[in-house]
């Protein structure tokens, strides 16, 4: 489903799995080229050591590359299934304050996905997300692998 950046931001802010973990979409960039996310430290997501629960950090990184690709490719006329195929997280430092990260896609990455979809019907690639605290210190890195499968194209072809 195609939606505006603003509509999706608000929908994801109140999506229960994100809301109750205090994962807050700050903004989607124009044309879904990126997203800025905050993980607010809260009584609802603290672990035994009073830092942000690792599962919350992992959950925060889960959907965003898939969402970005899905919106961008739909606007380009592709009918696709997109999901996170796998992810690996490395916890570097406890999240004792709110955490922040951004996910971005540039023209080359989008072109690479489109070329692969046109030639092979699928696209698989890993992207790194760096999650930092208020002071800008690295707390976790997530290697997120996105899988995109072309269902069919609704683009009009010129002859």
Write up this protein.
It is a single chain. This protein is α+β, with helices and mostly antiparallel strands. The protein has one domain (5-153): Hotdog Thioesterase (Thiol Ester Dehydrase, Chain A, Roll), CATH 3.10.129.10. The protein contains five helices and six strands, in the order H-H-E-E-H-H-E-E-H-E-E. It has helices at 5-13, 16-19, 54-61, 64-75, 107-120, and strands spanning 23-28, 34-39, 78-91, 99-104, 122-133, 138-153. The protein has a six-stranded antiparallel beta sheet. A hairpin with a 5-residue loop joins strand 1 and strand 2 (34-39). The longest helix is centred in the C-terminal third of the chain and has 14 residues, at 107-120. The relative contact order is 0.18. The model has no long low-confidence stretch (mean pLDDT 94).
Using the CA coordinates, give the radius of gyration: 17 Å
How does the overall form come out from the CA principal axes? globular
**Largest sheet strand order:** 1-2-4-5-6-3
The CATH topology annotation reads as Thiol Ester Dehydrase, Chain A
Task: Report the strand count.
Answer: 6
Order of helices and strands: HHEEHHEEHEE
Number of domains: 1
Cα distance, first to last residue?
Answer: 28 Å
Strand content: 35-45%
CATH-defined superfamily: Hotdog Thioesterase
Mean pLDDT: 94
pLDDT < 50 runs, ≥5 residues:
none
Helix content: 25-40%
Oligomeric composition of the shown chains: single chain
Structural class: alpha+beta
What is the tally of helical segments? Answer: 5
In CATH, what is the class?
Answer: Alpha Beta
Named CATH architecture: Roll
Outline the biggest β-sheet.
6 strands, antiparallel
Organism: Arcticibacter tournemirensis
InterPro entries: DUF4442 (IPR027961), HotDog_dom_sf (IPR029069)
Protein name: DUF4442 domain-containing protein
Pfam families: DUF4442 (PF14539)
């Amino acid at each position: 489903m195609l939606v505006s950046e603003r509509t999706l931001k608000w929908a994801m802010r109140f999506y229960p799995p994100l809301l109750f973990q205090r994962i807050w979409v700050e903004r989607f960039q124009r044309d879904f080229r990126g997203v800025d996310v905050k993980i607010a430290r809260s009584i609802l997501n603290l672990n035994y050591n009073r830092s942000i629960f690792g599962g919350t950090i992992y959950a925060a990184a889960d959907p965003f590359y898939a969402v970005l690709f899905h919106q961008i490719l739909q606007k380009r006329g592709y009918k696709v299934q997109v999901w996170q195929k796998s992810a690996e997280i490395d916890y570097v430092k406890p999240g004792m304050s709110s955490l922040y990260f951004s996910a971005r896609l540039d023209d080359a990455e989008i072109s690479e996905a489109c070329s692969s979809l046109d030639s092979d019907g699928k696209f698989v690639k890993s992207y790194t997300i760096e999650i930092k605290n208020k002071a800008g210190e690295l707390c976790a890195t997530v290697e997120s692998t996105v899988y995109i499968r072309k269902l069919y194209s609704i683009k009009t072809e010129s002859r």
